[in-house]
Amino acid sequence: MRARTRPGRLAAFDRWLSRSEQPLLAQPGVVVDVGFGVSAVTTAELAAALPAHHVVGLEADVARLEAARREFPSLDLRQGLDALREVRNVRVVRIANVGRALTKDDVGALVREALALVVPGGVVLEGTTDVEGHVSAFHAWRHGEATPRLVLHTDGARGFSPWLFRDVLPRALRRDVRPGTPVHGLLSAWAEVWELNRTAAPAESYVRSAEALARQRDDLDVRHLAEGFVAWRSA
Question: For 65-79, what is each residue's pLDDT tens digit?
Answer without folding.
Answer: 999 999 999 999 999
